[in-house]
Amino acid sequence: MVNVAILGYGTVGSGVAKVLTDNAEEIAGRVGEELNIKYVLDLRDFPGDPFEKVVVHDYELIAADPEVSVVVEVMGGLHPAYEFTKRALESGKSVCTSNKELVAEKGAELLKIAREHNASYLFEASVGGGIPIIRPLVQALTADKIEEVCGILNGTTNYILTAMSEGGADFDSVLAKAQELGYAERNPEADIEGHDACRKIAILASLVSGKQVDYKDILTEGITKITDEDMKLAEAIGGSIKLLGVSRWKDGKVFARVSPFVVEKNHSLYAVNDVFNGIMVHGNMVGDVMFYGSGAGSLPTASAVVSDVVEIAKNIGSNIPITWSEDKQPVEDPKAFTCRFLVQVKEGKQAVADAFGQTDTVSESAEDGTVFLTENMTEAEYDQKVGALTVVHMLRTI
Ligand code: HSE
To answer: How much is the pTM?
Structure first.
């Protein structure tokens, strides 16, 4: 029997208990022995809950119990999750987590500690909710040079943007609904300002680089400034607005950005709506590989956490290697990030041609000015060319 302790009995923690209970037979079959939830750590009591009797309030009980070999950290936040994880790993207990904040900040260090103590630190649920993306990236796509990772990485904002694009939805009530459904962070600012997506793309970029891509180095813009006019501008080219985390590798340099982008109909991420996440990985040999599924919510996230528990339970006493060192991987100046810009300016087509040369004109009228799509260019080139024009709206496209 493999004994598991769950730290945090919130949306994800209770989901983990349910997955381990409801699918106990299948999971035991895959592991080769039964998994037992020996402790649930939380500040609260849960009278009437099936795990009421194993709820404890003191982490020391878990830390001191040699029978616990797997710790599931689903508390969220940096502290005390970091200290609890570190102690568990140092005593040879393996840890799996959905805590993207902690993984983005301390992932490399915790992986090193795990390695040094023949334990494992796994974090499949930290990116993309229920979508397997970490394991495919580190175990399957190993023959390629990864050139781009581009994803809808936050379920809450995708849910909000989908509702907005369908019309008639008021931002606050859609956000409240996402919170009610268990998608949003405790502080939803992390979702709507793009910080959650930023941590997730930083984790993926670090895994691809094998070095620390610091989330603080990634320019991040959320969805709070998106207006109905922006939505209409995107629709004018048959696209829709999605919050994307993008990371690119070119000539040994890393480019990254989190912001709303217009995704056109012919792009695989166009059809990723509601709480779903989609992650497109481009390898130099394999081409595009697309990952799609539920990006948030109790059971999808718990499913990914428990997949890590299963992996750990099959490898007790040994380290499951993940290459991510603490060496810093610099991220290039955001002005060097390239894309096509969808722009509405007050001036006519001729003024646009004078400033930009070749563009695709979407529309031109005396009333609305000119809407056009630039060639692919850096942000710095765009800034320089657009200087002479009066911009009404600008959106980046992918
Ligand atoms: N708040 C996150 C989201 C939860 O909406 O995607 C999953 O990480």
So the answer is: 0.98
What is the CB < 6 Å shell around ligand 1?
129, 154-156, 183-185, 191, 196, 295-296
**Segment 14-64, tens digit of pLDDT:** 999 999 999 999 999 999 999 999 999 999 999 999 999 999 999 999 999
Residue 200 annotated as catalytic? yes
Nearest to 278 by CA among 151, 124, 92: 151
Question: Looking at the domain assignment, is residue 71 inside a domain?
Answer: yes
Pocket residue to mutate for ligand 1, from 157, 183, 198, 242, most atoms within 8 A of Cβ: 183
252 and 308 assigned to the same domain: no
d(CA 356, CA 382): 8
Taking the CA of residue 156 as reference, the ligand 1 atom at the shortest distance is 5
381 within some domain: yes
Is 52 part of any domain?
yes
Nearest partner of 246 among 221, 223, 227, judged by Cα: 221
Residues 376 and 247 in one domain: no
The number of CA neighbours under 13 Å toward the Cβ of 153 is: 34
As a whole number of Å, the CA-based R_g of the chain is 23
